[in-house]
Amino acid sequence: MRRPTLADVAAVAGVSAKTVSNVMLGRNGVSEATRRAVLAAVEQCGYEVNLAGRGLASGRTGRVAVVVPNIYQPYFAEVAERLILALDARGLTAMLQIAHDGAAEREAVLGGRVRDVDGVIVCPHVAFPPDDTAPARPVVQLGGVPTGRWDCVVMGEREGADAVTRHLLDTGRRRIALVWNGAPGVRPSDDRFAGHLAALAAYGVPHDPALVAVGSDWDRRASGYEAMVGLLRSGASFDAALCINDAVAAGALRALHRHGVRVPEDVAVTGFDDTDESGFTVPSLTSVSPRQGEMVEHAVAMLLERIAGHAGPARAVRTGADLVPRASSAAV
Amino acid sequence: MRRPTLADVAAVAGVSAKTVSNVMLGRNGVSEATRRAVLAAVEQCGYEVNLAGRGLASGRTGRVAVVVPNIYQPYFAEVAERLILALDARGLTAMLQIAHDGAAEREAVLGGRVRDVDGVIVCPHVAFPPDDTAPARPVVQLGGVPTGRWDCVVMGEREGADAVTRHLLDTGRRRIALVWNGAPGVRPSDDRFAGHLAALAAYGVPHDPALVAVGSDWDRRASGYEAMVGLLRSGASFDAALCINDAVAAGALRALHRHGVRVPEDVAVTGFDDTDESGFTVPSLTSVSPRQGEMVEHAVAMLLERIAGHAGPARAVRTGADLVPRASSAAV
DNA sequence: CTGAAAGCGCTTACAG
DNA sequence: CTGAAAGCGCTTACAG
Lengths: 332, 332
What we know:
- The structure is a homodimer.
- Chain A has eleven helices and twelve strands.
- Chain A has a six-stranded parallel sheet with strand order 2-1-3-4-5-11, with helices on both faces.
- The first copy, chain A, is of the alpha/beta class.
- Chain A folds into three domains: about 5-50, no CATH class; about 60-155 and about 290-320, Rossmann fold (3-Layer(aba) Sandwich), CATH 3.40.50; about 155-290, 3-Layer(aba) Sandwich (Rossmann fold), CATH 3.40.50.2300.
- The first copy, chain A, is about 40% helix and about 15% strand.
- At the A-B interface, helix 4, helix 5, strand 2, helix 9 and helix 10 of A face helix 4, helix 5, strand 2, helix 9 and helix 10 of B.
- The structure holds a DNA duplex.
């Protein structure tokens, strides 16, 4: 059977196609009686609007691209799931895109295919490459470093790192190793690092560069494992390991276990993101919750405003972060 | 600036719109000289085909719905990521849909919105509800119980459960508890269960229903934790726990640790899915790899055939499963 | 091997 | 508050 069209519904309801369209779009200025007749006809025909037709006529697609580096990392999986559901609740369909590297990410945000969506929400890799190309559609960035080129939700990087560092200092740790994301061999310069330094300074504890393990591909458990093995082999002495995320911390926990280092007795370990896994490692993992629900709501709200036509300068909304202490950093 | 259209490109190339269309679609029957001229014009204009226009004219959308129960479970996240990339490699865009319950899943596969995609790949909940509605678009099911209503890739449920059970028996375990997915209180009837029973029978070891913990919402670590606590409290004695998936096994590991039960000395634990996490639990987790790459390739290939018009009866492709032994089930 | 016309199913100004 | 016409950007038969 042929799929019913607007014209079919209009014929059944005894009105013009435009009136049916007005009802489908929820426009006001339709008499209640007409509205009811149209809705009945829609029901009777089993009509569903054809998005290709609507898209062509209106220029709107009803779709939003959601770009994440991967979804094997629980953090991104959780954010992606929240974004999909939040967009869905507003009648928009998410097009989840996996951008494994910076080039794929750039293409997903600035490339030609972007014209087939109404807007883009991107969770960027460490740093979004500077660029002079203007995006074809509104873009909102979730996390990462704000660019000034588009709206951005900035998570509580600094506050979170500050809080977890203070927590370690408060519980007696003094030599805190960092397992960090960034260009290898380069001293980190991000907000989390700044928060960490600020907390150290407030306690009068010096920062030791020998205790920093930096790598650009450290977003898997295996990476954390390798980084921790490297730290242990370096002979550096430390009583805490502040890890860039939970996945890396899980790998670090395993490496410490393997080498007979006790957690938290010998070394405290902390993560970031407060993923589900953090409650189930052995020992359970102290982490920082970035208030994902809040971030997602802000991102979706800003994108909708842009799609609706808001044209002001790029905005930056900042959210907080909450320390979630668990066994891996208990005082000893 | 206005987005360039087919007509713009045609004007620049000095041909008709149809010829440009033929080139864009890779149709043969275009002279090499014309093809080159068109491609140059495309480049010059920065032309990208408008999917709404193509969709309306051709009836094809270039999109495939990928329906999964969630992506917080690493297994589904990994399958979804593989599907997205596999479809992308064939020029199709995935529309990832999260169907948290059976009703949402039914809507995603059989509902009206399905007309906006060319086909559907669904990773179903435990059992897809029987139904007499015909899907509006080709459907391929990945995992779960084949329905006979559409193409299905059946994972090595039986082989996997058989292999892991034999492994436990071979390493001296005799009282194997099951932490299983299913209707609460109902004896499981799925293929994995059958595989488990077959292995037990082959070794002449009786199955003890008192060692089966069944629940319908057991797909999170917390569920495995609770299930294992329940088993321990029941006073049942067991020397192994065969868990329905890695997430549940991770929760079970934690519960055993909490209660002072040693793994693998007192109890062996095994999971299913061979997720990344299984290599990093303490102790590392024996699991079963369902050969996800193979499954995804089969699913995408079958869907493409259907979209291309293949109309034969529902097919079922079976894949294998591989035991991945780790420390949690070491012989003692 | 290429063209001119029609039409996919909607919405958008323009009328009234 | 509603209608008739035009058009969004493409592909599909139909010609030649």
